[in-house]
Amino acid sequence: MKEVKFLGKHKRTMNMLVILAMFTCTNVCLGISDIKGESVSRDDKKTIDQIKKSAEQGYAYAQCNLGGMYHEGKGVKQDYKEAINWFKKSAEQGFAQAQYNLGVMYYEGKGVKQDYKEAFNWFKKQHNRGILAPKQY
């Protein structure tokens, strides 16, 4: 785990939130399915177009999915800045998974300047919603 020096007396709290976020949730944002609920390929152009359209219309879940697609390069060219853009739109609507994803992006410095304080703020928002974070981080 990376050392969080600027937080001083809050370093332990930050580390505990990061650990909590890293090990306790099973929910991920990249589960993509079509309108009927059937499983589809992440590279299916029709599905990608539907997700983009929904994201552009302001649907938080679709925005988070689209951010995840840009993060992973699934069906679109990998672009961390575009992932940040979509995660932020979703997170600002209170979508907990996007708040967590945004926290990870700031924590790891992907698509943004690494900023532990901003990561902490997003992890805290996600945690306050009562949703635990995916195990992979």
What does this structure look like?
Helices cover 55% and strands 0% of the residues. By secondary structure, it is an all-alpha fold. The longest helix is centred in the first third of the chain and has 13 residues.
Order of helices and strands: HHHHHH
How big is the Rg? 15 Å
Average pLDDT reading: 75
Helix content: 55-70%
Low-pLDDT runs: 1-6, 18-40
Which percent band covers the strand fraction?
Answer: under 5%
Tally the helices: 6
The rounded distance between the terminal residues' Cα atoms is: 11 Å
Please give the largest β-sheet: none
How many extended strands?
0
- Structural class of the secondary elements? mainly alpha
- Large-scale geometry: globular
Which helices and strands, and how do they pair?
Blueprint (H helix, E strand, L loop, with lengths): L10 H13 L21 H12 L3 H13 L7 H12 L4 H13 L7 H13 L9
Helix pairs in contact: 1-6, 2-3, 3-4, 4-5, 5-6
Notable features of this structure?
single chain, 137 residues, mainly alpha, 0% strand, disordered N terminus
Question: In a nutshell, what does this entry contain?
Answer:
With 137 residues, this protein is an all-alpha fold. Helices cover 55% and strands 0% of the residues.
